[in-house]
Specification:
The protein contains 3 helices and 8 strands, in the order αααββββββββ. It has helices at 6-18, 23-31, 36-42; strands at residues 71-73, 77-78, 85-86, 91-92, 96-97, 104-109, 112-117, 121-123. The longest helix is centred in the first third of the chain and has 13 residues, at 6-18.
């Protein structure tokens, strides 16, 4: 952040802005000085307007889920638009994350691709 190159200063400002909820990052932002033109350039992404939190797909226990994981249902679920009922303890292999909703994953249950809420599963 103390670099003489504006591009390095901008990257440092943006990274610290994303982490500003951490005490050390907030302290570093307070002492970071940028010329007005450089600060304007740094703010173009809008990082300073976001709350700085990042959400991940998590199971009922708070364990992070990844593409391809195997999960187990913790509740019997009726699949909408189908007569299929996914029973408690059903294993769902090779899940896919729903990228625009961290509360949902996709997986195959009895050969049918279904969307499952993450609050009804645990990593297996």
């Amino acid at each position: 952040m103390w670099s003489e190159f504006p591009a390095v200063q901008v990257v440092a400002w943006r990274m610290l802005s994303r982490l500003r909820n951490e005490g050390w990052a907030s302290d570093s932002l307070d002492i970071l000085y940028l010329e007005d033109k450089t600060l304007e350039w740094a703010k173009k992404t809008g990082d300073h307007e976001q709350d700085g939190t990042v959400e991940f797909h998590q199971d009922v226990n708070g364990t992070r889920l990844y593409e391809g994981d195997t999960v187990v249902l913790v509740k019997t679920l009726d699949v909408k638009g189908s007569t299929l009922s996914a029973k408690l303890g059903t294993v769902v292999k090779n899940i896919r994350l729903v990228h625009d909703n961290t509360g949902q994953i996709e997986g195959k249950v009895e050969g049918q691709t279904v969307v499952i809420l993450t609050k009804y599963l645990r990593k297996g």
